Amino acid sequence: MLGWEFPPFISGGLGTACYGLTKAMDQLGIKVTFVLPALIRSEYVTHVKLLTPASMMSAGRLMKFGELKNVTFHAINSLLQPYSTPDVYQRQIEETLRLKQQNRGAAVSFVGGVDYSRDMAAEVRRYAAVAVELARNEVFDVVHAHDWMTYPAGIAVAAMSKKPLIVHVHSTEFDRSGEHVNQMIYDVERQGMHAAAKVIAVSYFTRSIIIGRYGVSGEKVEVVHNGVERSSNGGWSLDETGIKKDEKIVLFLGRITMQKGPEYFLAAAKKVLEVMDNVKFVMAGSGDMMHRAVEMAAGLGIGHKVLFTGFLRGEDVQKIYKMADLFVMPSVSEPFGIVPLEALDNDVPVIISKQSGVSEVLRHALKVDFWDVNEIANKIVAVLKYAPLKMTLRSYGNFEVRRLSWKDSAAKCLRIYEEALAAAYC
Amino acid sequence: MASICFYFQVHQPLRLRHYTVFDKDNHYFDDYKNAFICRKVANKCYLPANRLLLDLIRRLDGRFKVAYSLTGVLLEQLQLYAPEVMSTFDALAETGCVEFLAETYYHSLSFLYSRDEFLEQVNKHTETIASLFGQKPRVFRNTELIYNNDLARLIESMGQFDAIISEGADHILGYRSPNFVYRPQNCSKLKLLLKNYALSDDIAFRFSNRAWSEWPLTAEKFARWISNVNGNGYVVNLFMDYETLGEHQWKDTGIFDFMGRLPYEILKHPDNNFKTPSEIVACYEPVGTVDVPHLISWADTERDLSAWLGNAMQSNAIYELYRLEKKIKTASDDKILTDWRRLQTSDHFYYMCTKYFADGDVHKYFNPYGSPYDSYINFMNVLDNLHNRCSGGAAGAVSRELSQSKNQHDLQTVN
After folding, report:
1. Domain annotation covers residue A296
2. Which of A224, A419, B194, B225 is a plausible cystine mate for A412, CB 3.0–4.6 Å?
3. Residue B357: which pLDDT band, with cuts at 50, 70 and 90?
4. In the annotation, is B94 catalytic?
5. Dihedral sign, Cα of residue A52, residue A55, residue A58, residue A64
6. Rounded distance, CA B173 to CA B231, Å?
7. Over the range B355-384, which residues count as b (16 or more CB within 10 Å of their CB) and which as e?
8. Which residues in A have their CB inside 8 Å of a CB on B?
9. Rounded to whole angstroms, how far apart are CA atoms A28 and A18?
10. How many structural domains compose chain A?
11. Set B99, B144, B265, B320: catalytic member
12. Whether residues A273 and A305 fall in one domain
């Protein structure tokens, strides 16, 4: 399996999905060799500290890898060698990778004039070359590549080993960048999808993009919805937060980027505050629209009602869920969207956009068009105002989430592997 | 001897328009959608079905008989949007072979929450029927055939009814058959007619189901099943939604041909005849009493109230609605009263049902909302506005005020 990120180094759904899927495969007894650009090693701790709060490196997190008996990890250390530049630069590149390149313009400003796309392409090729080397010494039946950065590696490994390639589409360039697609990335995605024996889409929403925009034959594209990793909530009280008990909290959690629709969240917040007062809006996450979001909140005159927490992980995420009365995901284009499942798992009712894959699997969620700010506000007010609504959404939603296990997703993947293998050998 | 008693329920709710917390006006109902659906159902069901039954009555020289229960909210809509249907009902009434039943004017669950309101709505309905069709109803049916001993007592005490209709649910009848007339527990005069749900549902739900082993259902076959009742009962109560004819079972399933043939096939057997509920009551004496301490209905497999009051949102919405009764009635504003009553129609609560999985198909078919949550939000927004209107336009959230209210005991569920 070829991946790009893995907990605790995650910026979003991809890492979480790879973790959940491999863990479930592990339980099904499937042997997985997971190839990553970098694995957490002690010598990288200084580097890691730049990226994440030190608390995240706690032993408990790393222990999780020990749970995966059938999963082997390979880090391609060579990849990081080109970045033997000063730490700050390294962090920026890393940050850029983590954001999976929102759009070209923003990315260029990140790395200060370096042609990011060329650099990224080189990076992806290096990853491919090393992955092929690694694969020579491994025994495996199928190659499973997650998202575009690993597709060239997947194609190369599959060609070398004569094993079927399965590409797993967690998001497409159209989700990340709207209509302003990066041609290089699109080409890589298209190549990967066409070279693959099977394409796995995380939703029907994404499947239709793959068929419509990438010209992939429909019979090749299967849908495997994501699952959710059920968490055990530790003891924690509201006193620690410093937010008043009678204040309601509406949560936005995710990258603050065009794709996630932060401006619709703020516009809805403005409307809610016209009819309700005791509400705070928390935006947890970072991203290239962060500054614009802060400015917009100020511009709307609701700056004092909106809190920006920055990027949250682990325990902090649990804390914010404990505080929240409602989670809102007004994504403009969301291939799947794992966060609402996590929110429901943490007993937080959700409002999700109809333009998301997760709305295909959730019934007990309020659904809105991302642009319909009036309706988003209407629903936020209703959840905050009517306790039975919140209660029903929460209890049924929580129950519903339990059905969405990674085990089912892993089992579906296994079936797809078998189909691909059967097709390859007949 | 088997007497066949057809009773059709005819109802269309007044659906709410999309109403957000930001809406301020008093216009709650979706006139366009209601008119559209009313005309659509009129063309697919009410008009062709009325013509067919009228034709049968004439051809069979009065040997074919039916009963209807037309809700007040439906009659209002027909008068506005499909007046031609009204004239066909007039024609049916004039044959003397058609009986009209009584129910709550607004097709409401008021019996469960307010006896006063319930009685007012029943009286409003019987008066409407009397003025439109020239007959005062003598048989009562409650919304969705919701029934228990208390309801029967209340209906008997009104003094104007001979019988009441309910579901012949297995768990109330046990080994007994619905094909007899019974007496409700604790009643001395009132009679009880029970729906033969097996035969009724063969037409209403299974008629076009190709997976059903008896498909296709022919008039000959159904008449044979009816005749089998001879010797084991003397009435077959076939109660169903009128929309079964042409709307639930589309014309191309052959439902109209089936209905057109059925009376002839049934009457081929010399012991069979058709009777209206009042004729049944006049003909037969009760064979025993039926004790129904708990509420039943004709809905879903549970035959209980869970389709309307099964989750916290439904109970909350209806509870908040009836809480307003005193305020609404002291406001003595006809428009406010009418809006409040229109919100009582049981369909509003049915839309909030979350029992997706077993009965999902039926619920989805009748639901104008994308989800039960949307319907609850919409309903509560409307209710909030109505509440403000009857408290003299005072602003403020209803829910907060209500949840803090101390005197909740006076509005407990009556049952």
Report:
1. yes
2. A224
3. very low
4. no
5. negative
6. 19
7. beeebeeebeeebbbebbbbbbbbbbbbbb
8. 271, 274-275, 363-364, 366-367, 374-375, 377-379, 381-382, 385-389, 391-393, 396
9. 15
10. 2
11. B144
12. yes
CATH number for the domain including A158?
A: 3.40.50.2000
Q: Are A333 and A253 found together in one domain?
A: yes
Are residues A383 and A264 part of one domain?
A: yes
* Residue A5 counted as domain residue: no
d(CA B10, CA B42): 11
Give yes or no: residues A82 and A222 share one domain.
Answer: yes
**Cβ–Cβ of A392/B315 closer than 8 Å?**
no
Tell me the per-residue pLDDT of A242-255, one tens digit each, with 9 for 90 and over: 556 678 999 999 98
Does the CB of B400 have a partner CB in chain A at under 8 Å?
yes
What's residue B26's pLDDT? 93
Q: How many CB atoms lie within 10 A of CB B400?
A: 10
pLDDT tens-digit map of B319-346 = 999 999 999 999 989 999 999 999 999 9
Provide the residue ranges of all domains of chain B, joining segments of one domain with +.
Answer: 2-290, 310-411
Examine residue A2 and state whether it is found in any structural domain, yes or no. Answer: no
The answer for residues whose C-beta is within 8 angstroms of residue A88's C-beta and 6 or more apart is none
Half-sphere exposure for B372 (CA within 13 Å, toward CB): 29
CB B24 within 8 A of CB B385: yes
Domain that holds residue A306: 238-403
Q: What is the mean pLDDT of chain A?
A: 79
**Cα within 13 Å of Cα(A235), Cβ side:** 0
A112 and A174 within one domain? yes
Give CATH for domain B2-290: 3.20.110.20
d(CA B17, CA B368) in angstroms, rounded, equals: 10
pTM of the full structure: 0.83
Does residue A233 form part of some domain?
no
At A68 the pLDDT is: 63
Quote the ipTM score: 0.83
Average pLDDT (A93-115) is: 43
> What pLDDT score was predicted for residue A197?
94
> A101 with A130, same domain?
yes
- Which distant-in-sequence residues (6+ apart) come within 8 Å of A236 by Cβ? A318, A319, A322
Candidates A378, A390, A391, A394: best to mutate against B (most CBs of B within 10 A) is A378
Residue A187 CB burial class (10 angstroms; 0-12, 13-18, ≥19): middle
Q: What is the pLDDT of residue A87?
A: 45
Quick one: A310 and A350 in the same domain? yes
Amino acid at A332: V
Same domain, A205 and A294: no
A388–B315 C-beta distance less than 8 A: yes
